[in-house]
Amino acid sequence: MRLPEPRGAVSAEIIEALLAGGAPVVTGPADGPEPWLDEDLQISLWMLYELHYRGFDGVDPSLEWDVDLLRLRASLETRFLDGVRAAVSVPAAGVVPGLTELTSADSGPSMSRYLQRSATLDQFREFVVHRSIYHLKEADPHSWGIPRLSGRAKAALVEIQSDEYGGGRPERMHSALFRTTMDRLGLDTRYGAYIDVVSAPTLATSNLMSLFGLHRRWLGALLGHLAAFEMTSSIPNRRYGNALRRLGGDAAATRFYDEHVTADAVHEQIAAHDLCGGYVDEHPGSAPDVLFGAAVGLFLDDQAAGWLLARWEQGLPAVA
User: Fold this and answer.
1) pLDDT digits (tens, 9 = 90+) for 143-177
2) Which pLDDT tens digit goes with each residue over 138-149?
């Protein structure tokens, strides 16, 4: 994958460092807007995280563990975490009741209803472009949790991830199904092809998963994030599939969404009770971390959806 275009001083320094094989980089971002709206911060984090996934053309793989880059990443993560901590509240409840409270109370803008009822084909394509930043590597960030778990929680995560990866059938992997949806919509299916046109909030939703996944300290938050994702997925995916059918999509185009309607209805019970419940049973006192991960994931999803809907309401495209 090619490196993205810079969106500010920090990302420009990172690109220069990566191409030079580890040149000095700046120590951190200047003060800016809320971190999920900060284009420079989010593209910078995304680049630094991608070193742990597939890397970039012309970039030495050994830079994945470059001390200066890791130090910079830590400073960016601190700003990101400080911002989202101030933006969300966590229920004072047990883990399963808390997850139910968070996912039931989620009152952000309904992207799925808008797409089902009102979106044009061009708007649906833009929605898919933004979602491609995560869905073309769907499940990968949460898989970082597998070696850090044991017992009931580990078995539950492996069960969920096995479905996400197609049960051993490459053509059934959810990332492959999404690639088919993109192809049917005439979009570029290459990994990272649209990184230069998506918004900071879209990047933030992906970066949050990588932040939680790459830090053992945030394992509970990673599990809570996945649980909230699964518990709020089935109904919206039914609407996404119906929206695409309304716009002329065939069965192959909608299969990604149709698959999630049934899969996530099962996954939500496993994620809440066996994954998160099992983890908290084994690690008493970890419920606040689990619920924090869920709360932040829901908040950032709302921010990303709100950004897209605001563009469309103004009659503007949602890609740069």
Assistant:
1) 999 999 999 999 999 999 999 999 999 999 999 99
2) 999 999 999 999
Cα 67 to Cα 211: distance, rounded to the nearest angstrom: 17
Q: Could you tell me how far CA 295 lies from the centroid of its own chain?
A: 14
Domain ranges in the chain are: 9-86, 93-313
CA distance 308 to 199: 9
Angle between helices 219-231 and 251-269 (to 10 degrees): 120
- Tell me how many helices (H) and strands (E) the chain has: 15, 0
Separation of alpha carbons 76 and 80, rounded Å? 6
Q: For residue 270, which of 184, 129, 187, 160 has the smallest C-alpha distance?
A: 160
CATH of 93-313, one of 1.20.910.10, 3.40.50.150, 1.10.10.10, 3.40.50.2300: 1.20.910.10
Closest by CA to 293, choosing from 238, 215, 239, is 215
Using alpha carbons, list the distances in angstroms from residue 256 to 83, 160, 179. 33, 16, 9
What integer is the mean pLDDT of 94-107?
Answer: 91
Q: How many CA atoms lie within 13 A of 148 on its CB side?
A: 19
Contact indicator for 212, 225 with CB cutoff of 8 Å = yes
In the 8-state DSSP scheme, what is residue 59?
A: S
Q: What are phi and psi of 31, to 5 degrees?
A: -60, 140
* Cα four-point dihedral sign 92, 96, 97, 98: positive
